């Protein structure tokens, strides 16, 4: 386990009974997207939330905020500190999902979506996709046509009876 994974593991609450609660700022209905305090609270809470054992998708957190992923993407473009927090949360969740896969805790579906959370998994998926694309193009170029000639009758092989 590398040092990043160890640091993340040390920061994950060990008590699975511990439930995540949004910051007070995020629970106030009138504070929203235009308030920098709100965005800063989102950044702090997303990392804190990602460290809880039940955090497996960012969409779960967005649902608690009652916002969609496009909204968070727009915030990330405007606020670098939020983009950094989302990346950190992705890494924390990605490590948890990967370790869960290794231990047989999660299904193959989780494996198929791991590239959304870990950069090296994304790079690997892109590399495999490129290899498949190249193979497909090569197969299209190298079509082979087989011609089977008829074999003449011989005394050693009698003709096939007609049905």
Arithmetic mean of pLDDT? 77
Count of helical stretches: 8
Unreliable parts: 1-17
- Shape by Cα distribution: elongated
Beta-strand level of the residues, as a percent range?
Answer: under 5%
The run of helices and strands is: HHHHHHHH
Major β-sheet profile = none
Number of strands: 0
Give Rg in angstroms.
28 Å
Instruction: Measure the end-to-end span.
Output: 71 Å
Estimated helix fraction? 55-70%
Descriptive tags:
about 0% strand, single chain
Summarize the helices and strands and which ones pair or pack:
Layout: H1 3-11, H2 24-27, H3 36-50, H4 58-65, H5 69-78, H6 80-102, H7 108-112, H8 119-141
Helix pairs in contact: 3-6, 5-6
Describe the structure.
This protein is mostly helical and 163 residues long. The chain has a domain at 35-122. Helix content is 60%, strand content 0%. It has helices at 3-11, 24-27, 36-50, 58-65, 69-78, 80-102, 108-112, 119-141. Helix 3 (36-50) packs parallel to helix 6 (80-102) and helix 5 (69-78) packs across helix 6 (80-102).
Summarize the entry for a quick read.
With 163 residues, this protein is mainly α.
